[in-house]
Amino acid sequence: MTRLLIIQPDASDPVGPLGEWLTEAGAELDVRLPPEQELPSSLDGYDGLICLGGGMGALDDAKHPWLADVRKLLAAAAGKAVPTLALCLGSQLLAVATGGQVAEGESGPEVGPGLVSKKDAAWVDPLFADMPFLPDVLQFHRDVITVLPQSAELLASTPKYPHQAFRMNRCVYGVQFHIETTPDVVRAWAEAEPEMAELTRPGALEEETLISAHAEIAETWRPFARRFVQLAAGQLEAAPESQRQLPLA
C-alpha cells in the first residue's frame, strides 16, 4: 500500500474529503497534527507527502516553532523528488523552504469558491493535464506567494494572484487554494474570520452555494487525488525535467 505522510498544521483544516479520495485510491494515511503529534525526522518509509493549510503564517515560528520542522520536511521532499502536494499554507511553507517568498497579499484576501486558470505547463503535467481549463477551487487566505522558487514551473493562476499552483523537481506540487474542505469547515472559518468573510461576493458562503461548489470540486479533484496516489506508487510517470530551469539538487 502507498504510504503518505499528512501534515495537518491546524486542527481547523482536516484532510476531509481529500483523505477519503486518497484512501479509496489505495493510500495509507499517517496524519500528524503538530505539536501534539510529533513529526517524523525524515520521510523514510513514506511514498509521498501532503501538507494541509492553517491560520498561521509560513514564517510564524515565534508562535509555532514546529513550523521549521515542517519546512525542513518539505525542503527534503523537494530535494529528493518525493511526490508532494502542499495546500494553501502548505504551498507557502513549500515556497519559502525552497527559496520563494511569501507576504500578505496587496490586493486583499481571496475568499470563497472560485476558479483558477491552467497555464501552458499544466497541459503536459501528469496530474493537471486532464483537468478542465478553469478548475473549481476554494480560496481562504490572506498571504500569497509573491516569488516562486527558482526551480518552480507555474501551473495555474488567477488575475488577482498569479501563483496559484506550481510544480518543482518533476513531482512536488504546491497549490494556493483548498480542495480538502467541506461546507461546514468553510462556514467555521468564516465565523472565525468575519472580516475576511465580508470580502467575498454576496451569497458565496451560503449553504446552497457551498454545497454546489464542493460538488464541483469533488468532480475535478477526486481524479486528481487518484493520480497523485498513482504518482506516489510509481504507477504514473512524473513530469519531464524542465528545459528552462535546473532541478533541485
Automatic annotation (TrEMBL):
Gene Ontology CC, one term: cytosol
Transmembrane domains' residue ranges: none
Gene Ontology molecular function: any one: transferase activity
Source taxon at top rank: Bacteria
Domain Glutamine amidotransferase: 26-183
Gene3D superfamilies for the chain: 3.40.50.880
Keyword Transferase: yes
Keywords, sorted A to Z: Glutamine amidotransferase, Transferase
The name this protein goes by in its record: Type 1 glutamine amidotransferase
